[in-house]
Specification:
five-stranded antiparallel sheet, Rossmann fold, 15 helices, 29% helix, five-stranded mixed sheet, GMP Synthetase, Chain A, domain 3, alpha/beta, 504 residues, 3 domains, single chain, binds adenosine monophosphate
Length: 504
């Protein structure tokens, strides 16, 4: 059997062909490593021979989560192409922008996105468009069934780009972060080193596969080591809780954003859920309220909080289980193959314990954004990525992410980090979710505004919240206005989209 260079699936198909590779929870399909390998081969050959995909070409996907998406990522590798997973929550003009920026040769879409694809075909150059239906008859399944063979497989090197991942674009137009083979390899090494991942592990994917969370935490590390992965079509709090709260599901590894764990904790069945069988539960991607971390700690879940970005192929820091309680609230220490530093606005490193902007350098950091020389010049100097995150590090090397620099606001000359205010408000019983932003104010320059979602039956009013804040926060941090909403806006990863909250 010819095992292509760096091809993890081909390797496991040779060594442990019958071992479970992945399961599609929605369509109930299961694949061993050998079966996955064969499907990847056939699709890669179709890309090469029928679609004329050449090394470096982009292959886009517009799909809900499925095992097919993991296959397509590895098939892009075998064909030497770049995997371009598109965010299905975007509107047609946003998708049009990305497609015109990345100019893919092939677009694969799940059937439910047919109307968007019909529109996009009139607006972008899309040489090959292929439908897929989670294992049922479709262009994708027919291409695999054709059973073509790759001619002279290209062998990408570690510096080549494997994935082009457009960041959410909360400021300006989305930018395509280029993620290399080296970045995926080192992220797999970091995940394996820090989460006790073995061949017998079973990871659960529910973060979207168009985000690094759905790929790197922990599907790719599982595939690297030869473990298995269960893929959920989309985050469903009840289904997810049923799976992770039941030993029989076999799930050992998962990672979520705080909203995922918050929503699961609000379900009635949370009280009975058992988590002792879980080996590693990661949380990150946004600030986690201490009370949420403690709620799970009381149920025996030692969250491994981590910090990372699309541009760092996820894990830059991760908290060990051993220190999960005494360093609760920290995003952990830096991974082995990364350099981190915290600098002031002039770029000078700040002393231990002082807040500054976090910078990172290392093999998982993107070599740059696609087609964006200006952004690369400002975000990446000498290989150091400016993260835009405000952080400090303690004297044992544990990092604390304070907030996004751009979310920080200045009230009467004092810096206010909304995450701290949110944490204080969230400690009140009866609060389901909260987000704080800075809004313009004539007297103070900026003041805080809190958006609050109440739990059903909660009798809390704005005065209660203000009184609570007065007891727990300095005056300049207390929001000047409270607005109640039925729900907060979230992006597809589950993070609160603060830019969508009203500032008027
Ligand atoms: P994305 O590229 O969508 O994954 O977003 C990355 C951003 O998420 C980072 O720059 C941080 O602002 C935020 N983030 C990631 N991990 C954490 C964490 N542990 N605590 C607070 N914010 C985080």
């Amino acid at each position: 059997m010819d095992v292509p260079h760096y091809d993890w699936i081909a390797h496991h198909a040779m060594v442990t062909p019958g071992a479970p590779a992945q399961e599609d929870l929605h369509s109930k399909r299961r694949f061993t490593y050998l079966e996955m390998h064969r499907r990847i081969d056939a699709w890669a050959a179709w890309l090469q021979q029928e679609a004329g995909v050449r090394p470096g070409d982009r292959v886009a996907t517009l799909c809900h989560n499925s095992t097919d998406a993991n296959e397509m990522m590895f098939a892009a590798q075998r064909a030497g192409a770049i995997h371009l997973p598109l965010n299905w929550r975007l509107a047609v003009p946003e998708l049009e922008f990305i497609l015109n920026d990345a100019t893919p040769t092939v677009l694969v879409y799940s059937e439910e996105f047919a109307p968007q694809v019909a529109e996009l075909r009139g607006r972008c150059v899309l040489p090959h468009v292929v439908s897929k239906r989670d294992g049922e008859d479709s262009g994708y399944e027919r291409a695999i069934a054709a059973g073509l063979t790759l001619a002279a497989p290209p062998r990408p090197g570690l510096d080549d780009v494997w994935v082009l991942m457009y960041t959410s674009g909360t400021t300006g137009r989305p930018k395509g972060a280029q993620i290399t083979y080296r970045a995926q390899l080192f992220n797999a090494i970091h995940a394996t080193m820090t989460t006790e991942l073995t061949r017998r592990s079973r990871g659960l994917t529910y973060l979207p596969q168009f985000h690094v969370g759905g790929i790197c935490l922990y599907a790719m590390p599982c595939f690297h080591i030869g473990a298995s992965v269960a893929v959920m079509r989309q985050f469903d709090p009840q289904w997810c809780l049923d799976l992770i709260g039941t030993p029989a599901s076999g799930i050992t590894h998962l990672f979520g954003v705080p909203t995922n764990f918050l929503f699961m904790s609000q379900l009635p069945s949370f009280a009975e859920a058992r988590f002792e069988h879980l080996v590693s539960v990661g949380i990150g991607g946004a600030a986690s309220a201490l009370s949420l971390l403690k709620l799970y700690a009381d149920k025996g879940v030692l969250f491994q909080q981590g910090w990372g970005m699309t541009e760092t192929c996820t894990i830059g820091t991760l908290l060990s289980k051993e220190r999960a309680l005494d360093k609760i609230g920290s995003s952990g220490q830096q991974v082995l193959h990364a350099d981190l530093k915290i600098v002031d606005p002039s770029g000078v490193e700040v002393p231990t314990g002082q807040v500054g902007e976090l910078l990172i350098k290392g093999p998982t950091v993107t070599p740059g954004y696609w087609n964006r020389p200006e952004a690369n010049a400002t975000s990446l100097a000498d290989g150091w990525l400016r993260t835009g995150d405000a952080a400090y590090v303690d004297d044992e090397g544990f990092y604390y992410i304070v907030d996004r620099w751009k979310d920080m606001f200045i009230s009467g000359g004092e810096n206010v980090y909304p995450a701290e205010v949110e944490d204080a408000i969230f400690r009140m019983p009866g609060i389901a979710e909260v987000a704080v932003i800075g809004v313009a104010d004539e007297k103070w320059g900026e003041v805080g505004r809190a958006f609050v979602v109440l739990k059903a039956g909660s009798g809390i009013d704005a005065d209660d919240i203000l009184e609570h804040c007065a007891r727990h926060l300095a005056r300049f941090k207390i929001p000047k206005s409270i607005r109640f909403l039925p729900e907060l806006p979230h992006n597809a990863t589950g993070k609160v989209t603060k830019h969508a909250l009203p500032r008027e």
